[in-house]
UniProtKB/TrEMBL annotation:
<dbReference type="GO" id="GO:0071555">
    <property type="term" value="P:cell wall organization"/>
</dbReference>
<dbReference type="GO" id="GO:0008360">
    <property type="term" value="P:regulation of cell shape"/>
</dbReference>
<keyword id="KW-0472">Membrane</keyword>
<dbReference type="GO" id="GO:0016755">
    <property type="term" value="F:aminoacyltransferase activity"/>
</dbReference>
<dbReference type="GO" id="GO:0009252">
    <property type="term" value="P:peptidoglycan biosynthetic process"/>
</dbReference>
<dbReference type="InterPro" id="IPR016181">
    <property type="entry name" value="Acyl_CoA_acyltransferase"/>
</dbReference>
<dbReference type="InterPro" id="IPR003447">
    <property type="entry name" value="FEMABX"/>
</dbReference>
<keyword id="KW-0573">Peptidoglycan synthesis</keyword>
<protein>
    <submittedName>
        <fullName>Methicillin resistance protein</fullName>
    </submittedName>
</protein>
<dbReference type="Pfam" id="PF02388">
    <property type="entry name" value="FemAB"/>
</dbReference>
<keyword id="KW-0812">Transmembrane</keyword>
<keyword id="KW-0012">Acyltransferase</keyword>
<keyword id="KW-0961">Cell wall biogenesis/degradation</keyword>
<feature type="transmembrane region" description="Helical">
    <location>
        <begin position="229"/>
        <end position="247"/>
    </location>
</feature>
<keyword id="KW-0133">Cell shape</keyword>
<keyword id="KW-0808">Transferase</keyword>
<dbReference type="InterPro" id="IPR050644">
    <property type="entry name" value="PG_Glycine_Bridge_Synth"/>
</dbReference>
């Protein structure tokens, strides 16, 4: 058994990328964030400074791997980040030891891991520097039939689907061209104003939707009435999991009463089911114990579709430079205090 490491770039070996897909296809919580294509897309969008691939293989077969993002945490400090890893516990100790070597080469202050499954980490401790993903999410099982899925939704939600249908809302997949991305981004800006959250750049969405379209893992959808786009969403279908990744809708209350977002969601749930996905992930809701969460509004919307709340495992961290980590922690506390 060997452990190898290479930098991820456009020349990454296609045979290894295919082996990653082979490992991922059997996972229920599909780790799209741990695929080469996804990380090449993020590279184009300049999401991080560097990507590194570590893998364990034996007799020419990929056993386990990790994709590490090197991110800037302060002008002169970096950290290593891993999301959706590991797939399994095969050779995990050796891979973790390799992760702890990389920080020296990359001068990382710490390494933080966000796992999708419960793993017995050997050298990482349950802790976090910052919350990167919401630990609570809402899921729908797509193995159930249509009636069972509908019965799991609140009555008001089912009624709103019918309201949208009666008001001639139509849902369609659109090409990720500049015009359509601009329409989505303008709606997203409206949504941001209502919800008080940050958004990625317009260029990021060009790259993101082009990647989805190119790889046929879904894309951009509009909900329209009389040719006007009232709601929009970007969806990812990767093997067994469908992800409701981004959403946007009009702030005009006269148009919101046509319930376009409800029909959009229902159509996408059915589309995911048609394409053999087994689970639909709403990608983050507020902690039920946090009554003041800025996600309270969107959480209320999502939990009208399902009562299945799933909690991801705790974040894990390995601190490589205690002094620098203490500086960063102090900076964060000061920032919170001054808010």
């Amino acid at each position: 058994m060997e452990i190898k490491k290479i930098v991820i770039d456009s020349f990454f070996p296609e045979n290894i990328a295919s082996e990653i897909d082979r490992l991922a296809r059997d996972e229920l919580y599909s780790p799209i964030w741990q695929t080469i294509g996804w990380n090449l897309m993020l590279q184009k969008a300049r999401y991080a400074e560097k990507w590194i691939f570590i893998w364990a293989y034996q007799d020419g077969k990929l056993l386990n791997y990790a994709i590490i993002e090197k991110r800037k945490v302060w002008p002169w400090m970096h950290w290593n980040f891993i999301i959706g890893w590991p797939l399994n516990e095969i050779r995990i100790e050796e891979i973790e030891l390799e992760l702890n070597k990389i920080w020296i080469e990359e001068k990382a202050v710490f390494t933080q891991i966000e796992s999708l499954g419960k793993i017995n980490h050997r050298t990482f401790k349950a802790w976090k520097f910052k919350k990167f993903i919401e630990k609570h999410t809402a899921l729908i099982s797509l193995i159930e039939d249509e009636e069972k899925i509908l019965s799991g939704m609140k009555q008001k939600w089912r009624y709103n689907i019918k309201v949208a249908q009666k008001n001639d809302i139509t849902v369609e997949k659109v090409s990720p061209d500049k015009q359509n991305i601009d329409i989505f981004y303008n709606l997203l800006t409206e949504t941001k104003t209502r919800g008080d959250f940050s958004v990625n750049s317009r260029d990021y969405f060009y790259d993101f939707c082009a990647y989805l379209e190119r790889n046929r893992i879904w894309g951009l959808y509009f909900a329209k009435r009389d040719w006007e786009v009232l709601a929009s969403g970007i969806f990812v279908f990767y093997w067994k999991m469908a992800i409701y990744y981004y959403w946007a809708s009009t702030s005009d209350n006269e148009k919101r009463k046509f319930m376009p977002a409800y029909l959009l969601q229902w159509n996408m749930i059915m589309e995911a089911k048609k394409n053999w996905c087994e689970i639909f992930d709403f990608l983050g809701i507020a902690d039920p114990e946090d009554k003041d969460s800025p996600l309270a509004g969107v959480t209320d919307f999502k939990l009208k579709l399902t009562n299945h709340v799933h909690v991801w495992p705790e974040s894990h961290i390995a601190v490589h430079s205690k002094f620098k980590y203490m500086l960063l922690s102090a900076k964060n506390k000061l920032k919170e205090y001054l808010k």
